[in-house]
Amino acid sequence: MSTFRAIRIDKTDTGTKCAYADFDRAELMEGDVTVRISHSSLNYKDGLAITGKAPIARRFPMIPGIDFVGTVEASDHAEFKPGDQVLLNGWGVGETHLGGFAQIARVKGEWLIPLPKAFTPVQAMAIGTAGYTAMLCLMALDRHGVKPSDGPALVTGSAGGVGSIALALLKQAGWHVIASTGRPEEEPYLKSLGADEIILRQELSGPARPLGKERWAAAIDSVGSHTLANVIAQTKAEGAVSACGLAQGMDLPSNVAPFILRGVSLLGINSATCPKARRLEAWARLASELDREKLAEMTLHVPFDQVMDKGHQIVEGKIRGRIVVDIPN
Question: pTM for the complete prediction?
């Protein structure tokens, strides 16, 4: 077929316009692998692109969707052949390269990895970029050398996609886990995933003191701004914080005291262009360490025609856990 169904973002005089549309294959971008997509997932960044709340889409027209799983339709890349099941996370897809909320994608083969045999396509997208990023955060903490015997681990934005999977992974790794959330009604959900304690988002969302009481040895933060500053200020000596998001903001109103007086380390997590070897390691660890029952518990399946509505909801903080998008074919 010469056209396929997609979500299309176009530039307007007042911002952007997002709508379901028929997309012409002739408009697909450069790449050596064409994939028929079976599933994608909805991430916070996708919600920002759909709503236009942030300049995620940086070329037009754009198809949002920062990850997908599907079957190779055509390939000029040595590693992939028609019929192979493949997975993509990041690489500017859904931002500068046409993304995963579509029936078809054409991408560079170097961006793809084989779908891990341990996961079905649905499970792979239940994990998606959010879960893959959560594992990269845990791997960074492991490389730093911080361990459960050093004290608790904190997860901010714990009811979101990254946070939900981070809770499950940290608990599986033996940590005493503290979950920070702005939704206290989600306490049963958070505890079912692995949270041992719940603290309210307001404890961390205001301006930070240079140093606070030492409360946790490790943290995974997807919020940024004042929250990240407070997390750093309350991290124990020689502890570490993995930072992977900016739900509260891109700024970091912090100071050097935690770094030079306590030896706290801030570990930046770049999931989009992570080297392939580390990417494969992350997915291998997810295969062995992520509880499938907990993954199912945190996952909601939605049809393609609900993606735009859910995109608005995720930006408004009304979505918990992970959303798998079924792409019609």
Answer: 0.95
CB 130 within 8 A of CB 41: yes
Q: Rounded to whole angstroms, how far apart are CA atoms 165 and 294?
A: 9
**Domains of the chain (ranges plus CATH)?**
3-115+299-326 (3.90.180.10), 128-268 (3.40.50.720)
Tell me which residue of 199, 197, 251, 200 sits closest to 223, measured CA to CA.
251
Residue with tokens 């879960």: 131
Read off the pLDDT of residues 179-218 as tens digits, 9 standing for 90 and up.
999 999 999 999 999 999 999 999 999 999 999 999 999 9
> How far from 99 is each of 57, 58, 238, CA to CA, in Å?
10, 12, 40
272, 278, 270: which is closest to 92 by C-alpha?
272
Tell me the per-residue pLDDT of 214-251, one tens digit each, with 9 for 90 and over: 999 999 999 999 999 999 999 999 999 999 999 899 99
Tell me how far the alpha carbon of residue 252 is from its chain's centroid. 20
Q: What is the SS3 assignment for 139-186? A: HHHHHHCCCHHHCCEEECCCCCHHHHHHHHHHHHCCCCEEEEECCHHH
- 3-state secondary structure (DSSP) of residue 304: helix
- Mean pLDDT, rounded, of the chain: 96
Residues written for the chain: 329
